Amino acid sequence: MQDLMIDLETMGINSNAVITQIGACFFNRDTGEITKKFLQNVTISSCLKAGLEVDESTILWWMKQSDEARKNVYYNEDDVYPLQKALLNFKIFFPPGLHDVVYTWSHATFDFVILLNAFKKIDLQSPFSYRRALDIRTLVHLVNLNYKDETFSEGLHIHNALDDCIRQVRYVVEALKLLKGGA
Prior knowledge:
Blueprint: E1 2-10, E2 19-27, E3 34-42, H1 44-49, H2 56-63, H3 67-74, E4 80-81, H4 83-93, E5 102-106, H5 108-121, E6 133-135, H6 136-142, H7 161-179
Parallel strand pairs: 1-5, 3-4, 5-6
Antiparallel strand pairs: 1-2, 2-3
């Protein structure tokens, strides 16, 4: 069984949002071991050219975040890619032949939908299947985990898409243990 966690940093909350950072990692759902990592910053201008959108409320929200959080996403000019290149790199990161095998975890009504839409906007086939999308929030809710529990964030940066993936993997692994009757 293959599991992939995805997380995005965006400039909007709708399905057409500009993506500023893509994070992903393959992981073992039983142990939490991270087996492969991906992080790409994306230029806002390339997203706008592709027809993605910015919304005012998200800009205002980002202005209220810490300097560290904003620098993680918006000031790393050495490692920023146009949307098409970032999505092509994501496809390369994703092992071939696993389209219908990998379970893709995310905030399914947010990250998953936005990423699928970005692939459509640039006429590129998504490497993962919408039929294998799994939602973190639902799982965490079903086992009554505290999503704000700081122990899951230990050693990680806030609003870094890869670190957010790792945090979310920790939640998923713990929630699945609880579902199986362990602690």
